Amino acid sequence: MTYTIADLNQLSQDAFTEALGAVFEDTPAIARQAWHDRPFADVMELHQAMVAVVDAMSQDEQLALIRAHPDLGTRAKMAPASVQEQAGARLDRLTPEEYDRFLSLNQAYKDRCGFPFIIAVKNHTKASILEAFDRRLQNSLDAERQQAIDEIAHIAHFRLLDLVR
């Protein structure tokens, strides 16, 4: 279902949370809190309000948000939006060799950082994702935590653009 900004501005907090709760992976509390900033002039203002909620989270809350995201190229159960996004980058059609490479990189990244590798796949191909894995495995833990939050904000923006006309 899609909404207009006017529709969203008029929803109760529960209905707003129901409508936008999946924008940030398994973290509907972000939508619930952003509701207080209504009315929104446009989708960009809505996105900024939601990102401000994330920015105000404690490090533990941000880490929980990061950890709510699935591994890339996984065959595990994930949120419908993640399934669609990964399919858009053809991560649902990995060869056995590609699948093994993604598994290996996901594990190396989690071993190093303690959370899954996050990237807004809508802007990427399999090759560019693999290149980003290799490059970002060299970053500091603090840099990767911030990169994950930035990527989550990009993912949320794409999801909002799909939900709000």
Quick overview:
This protein has 165 residues and is mainly alpha-helical. The protein has helices at residues 5-10, 13-20, 29-34, 43-56, 59-67, 80-88, 96-113, 126-136, 141-163.
Radius of gyration: 16 Å
Number of helices: 9
Number of strands: 0
How much of the sequence lies in strands comes to under 5%
Please give a handful of descriptors for the protein shown.
mainly alpha; globular; UraD-like; 63% helix
Explain how this protein is built.
With 165 residues, the protein is mainly alpha-helical. The protein has one domain: UraD-like (Orthogonal Bundle). It has nine helices and no strands. α4 runs antiparallel to α9. The longest helix is centred in the last third of the chain and has 23 residues. The relative contact order is 0.16.
Topology, pairings included?
Elements lengths: L4 H6 L2 H8 L8 H6 L8 H14 L2 H9 L12 H9 L7 H18 L12 H11 L4 H23 L2
